[in-house]
Amino acid sequence: MNVDQVRQFVNFEKRKRDLESELKFVAAQLDNLEQSLIPQFLNDGVNSLRIDNRLVYLAEEIYASPRNDRGEVISALKRSDLGQYLSENYNTQSLKAFVREVAEEVRLRCQQQERLFTEEEVRTALPAPLCDALKVSFVHSLRCRKA
Fold first, then answer.
1. What is the domain extent for residue 67?
2. Which residue in 45, 54, 99, 115 has the most C-beta neighbors within 10 A?
3. Rounded distance, CA 119 to CA 135, Å?
4. Cα dihedral across residues 89, 94, 98, 103: positive or negative
């Protein structure tokens, strides 16, 4: 048996454990900073900043979920003539894409009227039955890339 290789294996295992521990620490620090910075970006109306040759920007995802249950959403889709989103159940990704399209129209309208773009604005822009059956949520995160 090559003891030098075993020793090398042990050293790499120790290093791997140390790096994983450090990565967990760094990830926790990033999470804490993100939770602190997102409200600052939103309150100050800042979409991005260039710092140290990096672009830090606010990313927004729009999600649609049932207010109560999926059956209510299916019924609302049928009443709204949006049957293309139905098979046996509804296609979550397609419905989310539809809600994002409506949200983009609402965003443009709000910008023109110099009003705040909110989850409630998007929800109320949906067809009436769907408006009552869906909850719309904005989820923000910070991302960073080379500037």
1. 47-146
2. 99
3. 8
4. positive
Residues 6+ apart with CB under 8 A from 67: 132, 133, 134, 135
Sequence-distant (≥ 6) Cβ neighbours of residue 5 within 8 angstroms = none
Shared domain for 21 and 78, answered yes or no, is no
**57 and 41 within one domain:** no
Q: What's CA 46's distance to the chain center, in Å? A: 18
pLDDT digits (tens, 9 = 90+) for 84-141: 777 667 778 888 888 999 999 999 998 888 877 889 999 999 998 888 899 999 999 9
pLDDT at 10: 97
Task: Indicate the average pLDDT of the chain.
Answer: 91
- The count of other CB atoms within 10 Å of the CB of residue 62 is 19
> What pTM did the predictor assign?
0.73
